[in-house]
Amino acid sequence: MKYISLDSDEGDSIIDDSLIEETGSVPPVNHPKKHSKTIKRTRSINLSELASHIGTTEKKPRHEKILSSSSKLSANLSIKSVSPSPSSSSSSPPSSSSSSSPSSSWVDKYSPTSINDIAVHPRKIKEVRTKLTSMLYHDYPPRLLILTGPSGSGKSTMVKLLSQELLSKPVLEWINPSTIKNTSHVDAFSEFLKAAKYCQGQNLSIILVEDLPFIFHEPTKDAFQAAVYQWLHYDPLTTLPPLVICLTEENFENDKNNNNFASWDITNNFSVDTVFGHKVLQSHGKYQQIKFNPVNATLMTKTLKRIVNDNSQLFNHHQLKSYLPKLVASGDIRSAILSLQCWGSWRSKAHQLPGVTDSMYLVFGKDVSFDLFHIIGKIIYGSQKVQPADLLRYSEEIPGNRQSPPDKKNCFNGLYLKKSSSDNSLSLKSSPTDQPYNIKLATNYVLCNTILASNTLDLRLLSLLILENYAIYNCSHYKLSKASKILKILSLVDTFPKWQVDLEVATDLVVRGTRISLEQDISKNQVMYLDNLGKWSLINGEKLLKNEESLRNDDKKFPLKSQGQFVNPHQKSSTSNHRSSNHHDKLGFPRDFKLMKKSRHTKDAVNFHRYQKSQTSSSTIGILSFNDTNLYHGYYEAVINQQKQFKGKSYGYIAQQFKDKNYAGHPPSRLQNKIDELSQWSTQKNLLIKRLGGEINSNGGDQAGGTVSTMMGDLGRNNIAEYYKNYEIYQGNFGEENDYSEGELEDDPIDDDGDDDNVGGGDNWSDGEMMSDSDLDNF
Amino acid sequence: MSLWVDKYRPKSLDSIDYHFNISKRLKSLASSGDFPHLLVYGPSGAGKKTRILATLQELYGPGVNRMKIDVRTFKTPSNRKIEFNIVSSPYHIEITPSDLGNNDRIIIQDLLKEIGQTEQIDFQTGKHRFKIVIINEADSLSRDAQAALRRTMEKYSTNIRLILISNSTSNIIPPIKSRTLLIRVPLPTVNEIVGVLSKIAEKEDIRLPSNEDEKSSILAKIAEHSDRNLRKTILSFEALAMTNDSISSACKLVELDWEKVIADLSKQVVKDRSVKNLSQSRSVLYELLSHCIPAKIILKELTFNLLCDPRVTDPMKYDIVDASSLFDERLSLGSKDIFHLEGFLARSMVIMESKK
């Protein structure tokens, strides 16, 4: 039994009602204290009830709905539920409502009401629960929990349900205000957090931020980051309520007009790094991050099946069998349920319409867009499987094949579709007379089409990724000419002026060119066999022949073992294991961004040196050109200066010897001259002691940063460090008459600049950033 | 105390050690009372800038050496502010527009207009009414900027004389070439460089072999190793003198670090022709590029290093040069150097593999 009571208990409310109406945000102290204990609600049920009371049965965007309801709530509505036992607050709502009100969204209707219903892996639930519990009840816990993951993976739902479980009350959620009276939009969030600090004791609740402030606006972002930073570093003795921030990470296509691709910031990458910034992320121990994966197939299927069973009259179970896997593949449970509902209700009406074919059902469902690594994986590794829908879509275009006989089902252009029993995906199978290459060609064609159809491709990034990763294929053991072909294509595409050649053409060229270049190699270098599932697979030639060297030099030696070779299951499993673990190297992230950053710093250092040099009295030529400075002076000056420094020390030592042994009281005048000269030299400011822009590492500096100190500030600091070192050595060994290093320390003009922006310099993107295992699993 | 390159730079036209013809001509120009716009071109390290500054001294006296740096702020059409450094003396002003990239037209227009509109008042010498504007690296000026320059040259010719410095005239538009007096400064010969170096060695008290032949052969070796680029030669000579107490033919020359890296890379390419090595050399290329070594120079060095390698046979050489020219063009057209450089390496590897 639940009821809604209209409660005009305004006396407890501290904040002016009208303001709340306007802002729509829920100030933390707003829940009337005397109700705070008894409030128990589950969002979906209350929403539907509310909706019926308020009279909005239309589907609204989710947060708007919450917004309207919660603002009403905070004004004068409080909802009590007479503590229902968990079992009676059934996981399936009354069936009467499901049939009588088809307009209500299944996403809300079937949203989980207890933590056990949620379609998230139990281990993940446990992890989050442990974290939250420790945040609630332990001393010095992390103050911030960041949940990341794709949309529809149950991040916020879980937090809300855990709040019910742990505190028996709803979360306190930040909702972006639409209008604000007293504070600016920029500061609204920090105001919210400030107020949220006091949610303690009886008011203790979990604070959820899902609807981030508009952080694409620079000042708002800064204010947001500052607020979070303050939250983390607020008086460490105080216990703060747990703050949970949910983040859906994504990449954006870069602004086409923006040629400066150097930036890697929030405008093209919405991730934990860009949203929170280095300052927050360096507060180790103060925050925790948990990554959510897309909802896995088993849980998703379970949930969808439950819904289907509940509405069995809507579905054609035969069609459903082929439709469900497509929904499941998206990993987004919200979208899947929505699609299912649309499809279900469409199916129930469709038979009345003329000209509706079965294939039309394919239009529903989330367009599975791949992330970039996934795409690169597909391009480079290739795939033996294709999605049935894709195959259907592109079957008629597959080049170079015969027309399929119209009477045979599942036969395209001489290739047969073979359904894999395990995951319902289709693979192509040729009739025994066909060449295996034919299959590969068709599969590749479909694969490339699928990749090209996904709209997340940025040509520049794609090319760079391919460049970085083409060599990982088969651990670089393939013919050089293939690599050359790929590079030729990349080089060619790079010269395409953007305004002349359609980007799609260029992308097409890159994707297909790379795939086919690598693919031709497979057909010669590797052995195809038909396994006991009737699926074509590849074994690495290397594995079979164990002769790596000859493989690289001449792969024509290997006969193309013809198709139809059956391998016993035992042997098969061992080879497939080998294939998945050792076959290719790991994918890497392009180093180009790092390069840009480094070269900018080199440029700064060189320019700084140029202009500084032209200001000193020794300059007789005005400004040196950039290249001269960088190419010649950058190195030779450093060498000369180092040597002079060394000589200065050794001459000083010799002079000391003269003095000690009392050779005529003084060192010879020639030596004295040298010493004077060198000590005069070393009082110059900003001597170049290290190569401008850092050493050039002949190994390519692949060994994580460190060797190359590129920044201007670094340059200055290295100088100082160098001087310190020399000074100490000097003091230790030679006494104190030569004090040239001191002047340097005191008034180094670049001592105090460039400190702040160095902080994040080195660790932004490490070379060839490795992918996480979960990403690899996707392939 | 300064580097030898700076210390021994001739200050006057008379003290320049080679290309006496050019010096003579400049001197007569300077004394003629009027002065044309100049376009001085020639390879790097030939002494263009030195000659120009010496000419300025001839024109205005030692006042030109009192140089200072101003930071000027300009506004782009998109209302962004750019800061730009200008080296100037009372008589001349020196700009390097390539520092500004695409906004060089703004600088050319605003700055030259500003200078051109104010008449030069000189109480000390009173010789010339015009101010000199030196534009370094004129070949990297954009087309836009060059067109703007052309109009300025005509309009303000009473108050401004331009001296353009560039490595070649191929990037300069014809209207500018026709409005300037072209002066080519070629590289000094090896013998001329040897003369310069021995002069320095004498003054610096450097211990060289007493045998005259041996001495000049060492100096010639240094000069040739530095491609007769005088700046590079003197720098490397100083580095050599600093690393060795006395210079003999046994001394190892101080190689430029990036040249060494490229030489190593090309050796590696000839030795190990595989996809694995290709991806390893990418790291080296990235390292070079991140040090702002121009991609074209990398390509050139790589090509010559490959051609000089004894393992590269004649038929390969044709194809390597061919590939090099192809990727050189791609470098000009494209925007990401790494594709083309690695493309060239892959192509060369394939060539060497197939013609083996």
UniProtKB/TrEMBL annotation, chain A:
<feature type="region of interest" description="Disordered">
    <location>
        <begin position="1"/>
        <end position="109"/>
    </location>
</feature>
<dbReference type="Pfam" id="PF25812">
    <property type="entry name" value="RAD24_helical"/>
</dbReference>
<comment type="similarity">
    <text>Belongs to the rad17/RAD24 family.</text>
</comment>
<feature type="compositionally biased region" description="Basic residues">
    <location>
        <begin position="31"/>
        <end position="43"/>
    </location>
</feature>
<dbReference type="InterPro" id="IPR027417">
    <property type="entry name" value="P-loop_NTPase"/>
</dbReference>
<dbReference type="Pfam" id="PF03215">
    <property type="entry name" value="Rad17"/>
</dbReference>
<keyword id="KW-0547">Nucleotide-binding</keyword>
<dbReference type="GO" id="GO:0005634">
    <property type="term" value="C:nucleus"/>
</dbReference>
<keyword id="KW-0227">DNA damage</keyword>
<dbReference type="GO" id="GO:0003689">
    <property type="term" value="F:DNA clamp loader activity"/>
</dbReference>
<dbReference type="GO" id="GO:0033314">
    <property type="term" value="P:mitotic DNA replication checkpoint signaling"/>
</dbReference>
<keyword id="KW-0131">Cell cycle</keyword>
<keyword id="KW-0067">ATP-binding</keyword>
<feature type="domain" description="Checkpoint protein RAD24-like helical bundle">
    <location>
        <begin position="369"/>
        <end position="521"/>
    </location>
</feature>
<dbReference type="GO" id="GO:0006281">
    <property type="term" value="P:DNA repair"/>
</dbReference>
<protein>
    <submittedName>
        <fullName>Rad24 protein</fullName>
    </submittedName>
</protein>
<dbReference type="InterPro" id="IPR004582">
    <property type="entry name" value="Checkpoint_prot_Rad17_Rad24"/>
</dbReference>
<feature type="region of interest" description="Disordered">
    <location>
        <begin position="559"/>
        <end position="589"/>
    </location>
</feature>
<dbReference type="GO" id="GO:0000077">
    <property type="term" value="P:DNA damage checkpoint signaling"/>
</dbReference>
<dbReference type="GO" id="GO:0003682">
    <property type="term" value="F:chromatin binding"/>
</dbReference>
<feature type="compositionally biased region" description="Acidic residues">
    <location>
        <begin position="736"/>
        <end position="758"/>
    </location>
</feature>
<feature type="compositionally biased region" description="Acidic residues">
    <location>
        <begin position="7"/>
        <end position="20"/>
    </location>
</feature>
UniProtKB/TrEMBL annotation, chain B:
<protein>
    <submittedName>
        <fullName>Replication factor C subunit 5</fullName>
    </submittedName>
</protein>
<dbReference type="InterPro" id="IPR008921">
    <property type="entry name" value="DNA_pol3_clamp-load_cplx_C"/>
</dbReference>
<dbReference type="InterPro" id="IPR027417">
    <property type="entry name" value="P-loop_NTPase"/>
</dbReference>
<dbReference type="GO" id="GO:0031389">
    <property type="term" value="C:Rad17 RFC-like complex"/>
</dbReference>
<keyword id="KW-0235">DNA replication</keyword>
<dbReference type="Pfam" id="PF21960">
    <property type="entry name" value="RCF1-5-like_lid"/>
</dbReference>
<dbReference type="GO" id="GO:0031391">
    <property type="term" value="C:Elg1 RFC-like complex"/>
</dbReference>
<dbReference type="Pfam" id="PF22534">
    <property type="entry name" value="RFC_C"/>
</dbReference>
<dbReference type="InterPro" id="IPR003593">
    <property type="entry name" value="AAA+_ATPase"/>
</dbReference>
<dbReference type="Pfam" id="PF13177">
    <property type="entry name" value="DNA_pol3_delta2"/>
</dbReference>
<dbReference type="GO" id="GO:0003689">
    <property type="term" value="F:DNA clamp loader activity"/>
</dbReference>
<dbReference type="GO" id="GO:0031390">
    <property type="term" value="C:Ctf18 RFC-like complex"/>
</dbReference>
<dbReference type="InterPro" id="IPR050238">
    <property type="entry name" value="DNA_Rep/Repair_Clamp_Loader"/>
</dbReference>
<dbReference type="GO" id="GO:0003677">
    <property type="term" value="F:DNA binding"/>
</dbReference>
<dbReference type="GO" id="GO:0006271">
    <property type="term" value="P:DNA strand elongation involved in DNA replication"/>
</dbReference>
<dbReference type="GO" id="GO:0005663">
    <property type="term" value="C:DNA replication factor C complex"/>
</dbReference>
<dbReference type="GO" id="GO:0006281">
    <property type="term" value="P:DNA repair"/>
</dbReference>
<feature type="domain" description="AAA+ ATPase">
    <location>
        <begin position="34"/>
        <end position="187"/>
    </location>
</feature>
